[in-house]
Design brief:
With 210 residues, the protein is α+β, with helices and mostly antiparallel strands. The protein is built from nine helices and four strands. Strands 1-2-4-3 form a four-stranded antiparallel beta sheet, sandwiched between helices.
Length: 210
């Protein structure tokens, strides 16, 4: 069995974290890099990841995250926030970054820039926001897999009120919207769910061959 499959079987959505255990700065650096290197559509990374370190802010977030204890008990709390009204400004910034990183004249990338703008900026704002929100899920998957490699627990969460999270963290003013929450840390010995057998569809149920 490969390490990847072994790690996938090991991980689960932790319900109770051991608040006395903190993820080291060294391991958090690895997890950050895993998220940074995540795939995204066109490579645009149309999101930001907010590390909520202030205990008071985390306490304020707990009631609007359905009272889930992981919000305050986990070592770290991340909010994946998609950029709202993503458009030409962000695409131009990306093109400039590509040019600088690869040592290319910006004008040689004009065709690629125009293509992206034709596909993205023409979408209604609501559709663009849905698209950028979907991109955060790809980044989350990198976090889950990298953390499992380090035997670090991550609980992905959709169970929260985005509008209220946006208000508490001031995301609206940053042009951001809370899409996902991820709590990071170490499972508590008393978390009974860690011993539950993993329930997934069988290969026959899940995959279709055409």
């Amino acid at each position: 069995m490969s390490n990847f499959i072994k790690n996938a079987n090991w991980r689960y959505a932790t319900k109770k974290f051991d608040s006395s255990k903190k993820v080291s700065d060294e391991d958090m650096k690895i997890l950050k890099e895993a998220v940074r290197l995540s795939a995204s559509s066109y490579g645009l990374q149309p999101y930001k990841i907010i590390f909520v370190e202030n205990p008071e802010l985390r306490a304020k977030l707990q009631p609007v995250a359905w009272g889930q204890s992981q919000i305050t008990e986990a070592s770290h709390l991340l909010v994946f926030a998609n950029i709202t009204n993503f458009g030409a400004t962000e695409i131009d910034a990306y093109i400039n970054s590509v040019a600088a990183t690869r040592g290319l004249p910006v004008d040689t990338l004009q065709g690629y820039s125009d293509f992206m703008k034709s596909k993205i900026t023409t979408l209604p704002a609501e559709q663009r926001n849905i698209w950028t929100s979907k991109q955060t899920y790809i980044a989350l998957s990198n976090l889950l897999n990298a953390a499992a490699e380090l035997n670090i627990d991550v609980t992905p969460m959709e169970g929260f009120e985005p509008e209220k999270v946006n208000e508490i963290l001031g995301l609206n003013e940053m042009g951001l919207n809370a899409s996902l929450i991820a709590t990071i840390g170490y499972r508590h010995a008393d978390d009974a769910t860690q011993s539950y057998p993993k329930v997934r569809k069988s290969e026959q149920e899940l995959f279709i061959n055409l």
